[in-house]
Write a structure and sequence with these properties.
111 residues; alpha+beta
């Protein structure tokens, strides 16, 4: 992937991993590449106070992409910024396809 490219969200998943941790995955694909972003623990099952940070992150992603629901993410055109360089495991930053709005999962969940 180059520094900033257009891409499409090809898949999304929101749910409990191993019946313990609430997490999500967003799979993005560009010309000749693809990457899944996610796997971050948004909350632990049975600890509702942890859900706030996760829901803020999800709401901000929906806002940046410009959709009203999680299900609408699939198929949306976006831009991605590669901040880690070739071979990096650092997730890219997701941006609106036309507007200068960006979402960085690492910054979001570090707050």
């Amino acid at each position: 992937m180059n520094e900033t490219e257009n891409a499409r969200i090809s898949g999304v998943r929101l749910g409990f991993d191993r019946d313990i941790f609430l997490s999500f995955w967003v799979t993005v694909e560009g010309k000749g590449w693809g990457q899944s972003i996610g796997g971050y623990v948004l909350a632990k099952k049975g600890e509702p106070e942890g859900f706030a940070k996760g829901f803020v992150a999800i709401a901000n992603l929906l806002n940046v992409v410009g959709v009203e629901s999680w299900e609408e993410l699939r198929g949306q055109l976006i831009r991605v910024k590669d901040v880690g360089g070739p071979g990096s495991s650092t997730p890219p930053i997701i941006g609106h396809i036309m507007d200068d709005k960006w979402w960085d999962i690492r910054t979001e969940l570090a707050k």
